[in-house]
């Protein structure tokens, strides 16, 4: 069951949301829901307990996802991807980049907390 919530957005936030919605051919409401969901499910690393921070430091793509990603990258270099595979590669690239950023932030927090050495 959904709950209706009315929000008053700052103009700049509303404009950015509208631009993303137009670019991705989605409704503004759907874009905002995705952002809120992402913000809730991806808590700031600084707020996580030590065990979760350390787990993020060792995070890797799932094996199956990594295999598909590697295959698509190799085939892309040879110019062998169709349109659907190019989209899939783009999606996996986003997952990979997002994971790298999250892992780097976790390493920074772990070093700040003294859980890891800056040299490891």
Question: How would you characterize the overall build of this protein?
Answer:
By secondary structure, this protein is an all-alpha fold. The protein is 68% helix and 0% strand. It is built from 5 helices and no strands. It has helices spanning 11-24, 28-41, 50-57, 63-77, 83-112. Helix 1 (11-24) packs across helix 2 (28-41), helix 3 crosses helix 5 and helix 4 (63-77) packs across helix 5 (83-112). It starts with 10 loop residues before the first helix and ends in an 8-residue tail after the last helix. The relative contact order is 0.10.
The main β sheet shows up as:
none
Task: State the helicity in percent bands.
Answer: 55-70%
Low-confidence stretches: none
Our count of domains comes out at 2
How many helices does DSSP assign? 5
Give the overall form.
flat
Sequence of secondary-structure elements: HHHHH
Number of separate strands: 0
Radius of gyration: 19 Å
Task: Tell me the β content.
Answer: under 5%
Mean pLDDT: 92
The SS-based structural class is: mainly alpha
Alpha carbon gap, first and last residue: 47 Å
